[in-house]
């Protein structure tokens, strides 16, 4: 057999180191306080393992320097999880003994694939520092916090003819060889037996066998057995199988360990994670628990049992009044709707602060705007448009509208009364009864008509009295001087009345000195007029 020369290999080929050991991890149980089942999605999860070199502070981010592996998508029931195949990471170097382990539980995405891009699908993350010697024995751990519980075990075994405590010794097996004599048909084989353990399996009760030479071996017995081939069953507690101060109780074909506080497992070999293991991520503060274990106090913006998840601060809807929330990582920003301000859009902007209503209009603040209640003679959104009250309330049946300080006044034509001349003074013509007899319904209708007519007459008398109280001065019978404004804001007018028998003068008994009285001036078509709500005599 000719050894290959590395220098003769083509440049496109690379030397791949041979795998020496395998790190195996098996998940036994998992439970979570979060709801794994979601609408329109199967309850399927998977586990992901990241194996790194030993670190004082474990970084959950890649790369996984030793390797990574994951399980298939599993049903969320306990039987599927416990029966899942172990995850394996091949080790092509001398096993160092110490490592950093990150174990995660994920929900499959909407398509059922094993994606780790959406952090909302992360159910749990365990980070631990450990030491593991090479061998067939499994080391068990149970990680428990306020949200989940994860039980798993792991081991490191040598493969590909590597042996030793760190899988660094290569020992290839020897093969028997036979010599065929040409002179006789007999075949003489060598009598050497260098692999006695494999060929004969002498060790009993699941003891481990080690070849020590040609035809020799030794058995490493499990607790409770002794003898050359571990065939003698003894008191299982004689070998002190309980670790970390646990007390042993001998049982039939077995034993049980009562573990001290902070330790678990069959032999009390599982230690609850502590703050020294660095389980808190993203700057979280670790605190030792009184009953063993730990708890993480997360900084602002992070959550989870190990502070491994970034918190969406907009999920609590901090922005008020329908504002849009944006989480920028270092700070929270609220984009306010029109009409609101403040860090959380909690303040309603006073749109009346700038006095938008003109001409003595009254402003009412709203959401993102305002409304104006205009004084008589003005209209528009901000009361900037000069108008007449008669533009909005026309008189019916040919009535004439006049602007009064109390509102529009209609002058009705003969035969009509009412605030808008909407009532007719002519009573409706009643039909004679078909049978000639007066029915109760007809009598009631006549009575109602008479009452209506009485009310209309009373209204007409009231309107006529108002018209008598207000006297009209013709434009040609008086002379108005320019108005004067006093310091208190009063506008004074002086009117010189001519001795015209056609002029109508208010009775002197109605006017009292020192009191305010309404003044009603009706403009002529070709003359300008002055309108005042009140004057002082």
TrEMBL record:
Disulphide linkage map: 221-230, 259-268, 298-307, 336-345, 374-383, 412-421
Q: Per its UniProt record, what InterPro entries does this chain match?
A: EGF (IPR000742), EGF-like_Ca-bd_dom (IPR001881), EGF-like_CS (IPR013032), EGF-type_Asp/Asn_hydroxyl_site (IPR000152), EGF_Ca-bd_CS (IPR018097), Growth_fac_rcpt_cys_sf (IPR009030), Notch/Slit_guidance (IPR051355), Notch_ligand_N (IPR011651)
**What GO biological process terms does the UniProt entry carry, in alphabetical order?**
anatomical structure formation involved in morphogenesis; anterior/posterior pattern specification; axon guidance; hemopoiesis; Notch signaling pathway; segmentation; stem cell differentiation
Would the keyword GTP-binding turn up in this protein's UniProt record? Answer: no
State where the protein is found: Membrane
Q: Which residues form the EGF-like domain?
A: 193-231, 233-269, 271-308, 310-346, 348-384, 386-422
SMART domains in the cross-refs:
EGF, EGF_CA
Show the GO cellular component annotation of the record: cell surface; plasma membrane; receptor complex
TM ranges are 441-464
Q: How does it sit in the membrane?
A: Single-pass type I membrane protein
Q: Which UniProt keywords apply?
A: Calcium, Developmental protein, Disulfide bond, EGF-like domain, Glycoprotein, Membrane, Repeat, Signal, Transmembrane, Transmembrane helix
Molecular function GO labels:
calcium ion binding; protein domain specific binding
Q: What is its main location?
A: membrane
Tell me which PANTHER family the record gives.
Answer: PROTEIN CRUMBS, SLIT HOMOLOG
Q: What is this protein called?
A: DeltaC
- The organism named in the record is Fundulus heteroclitus
Taxonomic lineage: Eukaryota, Metazoa, Chordata, Craniata, Vertebrata
